[in-house]
Amino acid sequence: MPSTVELRTMYEGMVTARRYEERLQEEYLEGKQPAFDISAGPIPGELHLAAGHEASGAGVCIHLRDGDTVTAPHRPHHVAIAKGVDLKRMTAEIFGRETGLCKGKGGHMHLFDPDVNFACSGIIAQGCPPAVGAAMAAKKRNTDEVAVAFLGEGAIDQGGFLESLNLASVHDLPVVFVVEDNDWAISMPKERVTDVTDGSQRANGFGLPGVRVDFDDALAVYDAAEEAVGRARDGNGPTLIEVQVHRRMGHFMGDAEGYRPENDVERASRLDSIPRLAEDLRKRGVDDDGLEEIRTRAHERVEEAIEWAKEQPEPKPEAALEDAFAGPPEGAAEPPAAAETDGGERSDGPRITPGERSGSDGGEE
Ligand SMILES: Cc1ncc(C[n+]2csc(CCOP(=O)(O)OP(=O)(O)O)c2C)c(N)n1
Ligand SMILES: [Mg+2]
Questions:
Q1: Measured in angstroms, how far is the CA atom of residue 151 from the centroid of ligand 2?
Q2: Which helix (H) or strand (E) holds 304?
Q3: Number of domains in the chain
Q4: What is the DSSP letter of 123?
Q5: How far is the CA of 153 from the centre of ligand 1 (A)?
């Protein structure tokens, strides 16, 4: 059961994330309408908003420290905010500015903040193997750090996720997998791609505990995550948690959602976890003024981050290739010089002709 201070922290994080995305939405649409030109406006490219997922990020990350690792998918803002990613530099990244977390080259799906060990990726389930790697590193270094990988229910059939469950389980690694089940993978309802209605059952085949939080009450997520993170920190291995969340928006900004029944949108809005958490706070004695104070602080922080980001310089074209390629690790041999080509053929190394190949494998020709 969270303390009132923890409840307030979760509420502030969730309100910040919601307000942040409302403001990103406004900024994003600037210049893109009426014909929805995805390259126009201050935030070019795709934008996936996580409104309706906030309780999951807040309820899990409240148990984490800066040194713990978190990976998130293409819908990352609520998790990043809950993990304590620098809001100004994150916003500058989303606006493609030089002072962004990745110097403006990653955009909203490729945020990386080494100060709080946070990363996200547009490739679904891609965050699972790195989280397992971080957990393995923590175990080998004998620290009590943990790793958490967030993913959508649409990613639970991906090999990267299933292999990660296996590796985490067989090595008893301090990692928690958090599946955010919003019922949809783009336009695909989940029942059309998997027969398992409870994604936490994926854990059964790999020998780790699986827990389903049927309703995204921040308190319920808090309780499930407290146990899972505690188990990982105490050296007792991984857990898979699935949280039922609600997708309030389209898959991406600009999604006309023609595939989605209207009552599903209405339902997502009705089941919003933020007013419910406000109710919990009222029961703990936080009055309307107290709640308003939290919301005002959150809104001001968001505004400050957006204003700051918009004043930042654009990256210089000549820096486009900087940080794009990794050099060899220290002490490793230099890689061979790039092969020169003549007419599309490799000019270095031995050449194998079809005749030689058939000769070497028994020669059937
Ligand atoms: C490996 C891979 N395959 C396909 C895609 C295209 N894609 C982007 S989001 C998405 C659906 C994701 O659904 P889910 O995991 O449920 O997350 P949600 O968008 O609902 O939060 C797909 C298939 C991708 N990014 N990566
Ligand atoms: Mg989904």
A1: 8
A2: helix 288-311
A3: 1
A4: S
A5: 9
Q: What is the pTM of this model?
A: 0.90
Domain assignment present for 109? yes
Among residues 18, 89, 248, 251, the one annotated as catalytic is: 251
28 is catalytic: no
Among 171, 259, 295, 299, the active-site one is 259
Please choose from 186, 193, 253 the residue to mutate so as to test ligand 1's pocket, defined by most ligand atoms within 8 A of CB: 186
**Nearest residue (CA) to ligand 1, atom 7:** 124
Residue 353 in any domain: the answer is no
- What is the position in ligand 1's atom list of the atom closest to the CA of 124? 26
Where are any strands of DSSP class E within the chain?
A: 69-72, 112-113, 118-120, 147-152, 175-181, 184-185, 188-189, 210-213, 239-244, 341-342, 345-346
> How many CB atoms are located within 10 Å of the residue 341 CB?
10
> Does residue 362 belong to any structural domain of this protein?
no
Q: What is the pLDDT of residues 329-349, one digit of tens each?
A: 788 877 667 655 444 444 444
Tell me the CA end-to-end span of the chain in Å, nearest whole number: 74
Separation between Cα atoms, residue 61 and residue 138, nearest integer Å: 18
Distance CA 272, CA 49 (A): 15
Residue 29 lies in a domain: yes
Residue range of the domain that includes 298: 4-319
Q: Tell me the C-alpha distance between 68 and 294, whole Å.
A: 26
pLDDT tens, position by position, 145-178:
999 999 999 999 999 999 999 999 999 999 999 9
To the query of whether residue 89 is one of the catalytic residues in this protein, the response is no
What spacing in Å lies between the alpha carbon of 252 and ligand 2's midpoint?
A: 12
259 is catalytic: yes
CATH number at residue 286: 3.40.50.970
